[in-house]
């Protein structure tokens, strides 16, 4: 097998006393779409920021984020900035984040190509083609627009165009459809599904929505309280989830709940305080299978070549 395009090793990120990521390891190969799922506050956006080499100012970071061999976290900022855009680009939940409100979309999409030694007309042509590709109805007009003049769905399409413009081998999307209404969400998922076939690199999709994972991903990492508690193929995670947290997430997924049941089940209890995380399994306090041994860190059990779960109770 080829070397993974993205290799994250023992990534730790703290905001003062808050240990948002507590030793996450994951990888993604070219051509693969990898999902990261977990409840609010489990460290997904913290991971996304580290993947593009942009941790929040003041955050304490350790571990490795290798993209095509280079450890992004070990590089000085100018080199990191160069890799961002060339090797990795991000699609945010709020597409406005990607744009400058005082420039037209066309000027920005041309600026994003500043490293290419090409005439402006060629860059404009590439921008136009990319806007057409992501489904903006009148790309020539869109080039003259300011981003706030576009609807939410069109803005997210434009942000996807911006991310893909330089053909980065790694694309990271943090909750790309969460801010959209159901119709727009379906359209953007459809677009991402089409693009996944054309994009030669790896895509990492971060979401709290299992439906998005099922639609788009090959493999999934399930995060809980700053750790990866289970990984596997989409098939494995949906059909033979091993970790009690993964099972609970799936049981609460609207797609798995019988119609007309009235209300959605939720996982009882709450996420532990990340300023004082438990020494053992972080899910133990909410887990139906917990016992005394869960007070020490659980082993990572392997259930085949692709599935791993960190839990005492589900030994293979
Ligand atoms: N810039 C920051 N400064 C301080 N604490 C932060 C910062 N960003 C995140 N946190 C804290 O780190 C933890 C993880 O947050 P993060 O945003 O990574 O979670 P998330 O999984 O993306 O959640 P959501 O699903 O709500 O987007 C939370 O406890 C959060 O309050
Ligand atoms: Mg987030």
Fraction in beta strands: 15-25%
Shape descriptor reads globular
Q: Which architecture of the largest domain would the CATH scheme give at its second level?
A: 3-Layer(aba) Sandwich
**What is the domain total for the residues?**
2
Mean pLDDT: 92
The CATH topology label of the largest domain is Rossmann fold
Number of strands: 12
The structure class reads alpha/beta
- Reading the helices and strands in chain order gives EEEHEEHEHHHHEHEHEEHHEE
Low-confidence spans: pLDDT under 50, at least 5 residues? none
Characterize the main sheet.
8 strands, mixed
Account of the 3D structure:
The protein has 316 residues and is an alpha/beta fold. It has 2 domains: 6-87 and 170-265, 3-Layer(aba) Sandwich (Rossmann fold); 99-167, no CATH class. Helices cover 30% and strands 22% of the residues. The protein is built from 10 helices and 12 strands. It has helices at residues 44-51, 77-86, 105-111, 120-133, 139-143, 152-164, 182-198, 210-216, 234-239, 244-251, and strands spanning 6-15, 18-28, 33-37, 60-67, 70-71, 88-91, 170-174, 202-207, 219-224, 227-233, 300-302, 308-310. The strands form 2 sheets. An 8-stranded mixed β-sheet has the order 6-7-8-3-9-10-12-11, with helices on both faces. It has a 4-stranded antiparallel β-sheet with strand order 2-1-4-5, with helices on one face. 40% of the residues are buried. The model has no long low-confidence stretch (mean pLDDT 92). Bound molecules: adenosine-5'-triphosphate and magnesium ion. Magnesium ion (MG) is lined by residues 44-45.
């Amino acid at each position: 097998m080829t070397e993974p395009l993205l290799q994250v090793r023992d990534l730790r990120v703290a905001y003062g006393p808050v240990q948002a990521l507590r030793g996450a390891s994951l990888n993604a190969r070219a051509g693969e779409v990898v999902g990261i799922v977990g409840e609010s506050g489990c460290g997904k956006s913290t991971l996304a920021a580290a993947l593009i080499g942009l941790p929040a100012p003041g955050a304490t970071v350790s571990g490795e984020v290798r993209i095509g061999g280079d450890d992004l976290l070990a590089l000085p900022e100018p080199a990191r900035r160069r890799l961002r855009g060339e090797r990795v680009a991000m699609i945010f939940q709020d597409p406005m984040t990607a744009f400058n409100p005082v420039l037209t979309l066309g000027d920005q999409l041309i600026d994003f190509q500043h490293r290419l030694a090409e005439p402006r007309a060629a860059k404009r042509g590439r921008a136009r083609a990319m806007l057409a590709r992501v489904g903006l109805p009148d790309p020539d007009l869109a080039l003259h627009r300011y981003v706030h003049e576009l609807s939410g769905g069109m803005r997210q399409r434009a942000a996807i165009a911006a991310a893909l413009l330089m053909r980065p081998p790694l694309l990271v999307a943090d909750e790309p459809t969460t801010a959209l209404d159901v119709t727009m969400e379906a359209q953007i998922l459809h677009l991402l599904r089409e693009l996944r076939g054309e994009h030669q690199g790896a895509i990492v999709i971060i979401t709290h929505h299992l439906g998005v994972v099922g639609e788009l991903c090959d493999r999934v990492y399930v995060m809980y309280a700053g750790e990866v508690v289970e990984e596997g193929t989409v098939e494995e995670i949906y059909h033979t989830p091993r970790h009690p947290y993964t099972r609970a997430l799936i049981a609460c997924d609207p797609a798995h709940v019988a119609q007309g049941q009235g209300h959605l089940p939720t996982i009882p209890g709450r996420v532990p305080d990340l300023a004082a995380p438990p020494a053992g399994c972080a899910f133990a306090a909410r887990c139906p299978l917990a016992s005394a041994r869960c007070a020490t860190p659980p082993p990572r059990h392997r259930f085949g070549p692709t599935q791993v779960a960190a839990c005492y109770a589900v030994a293979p």
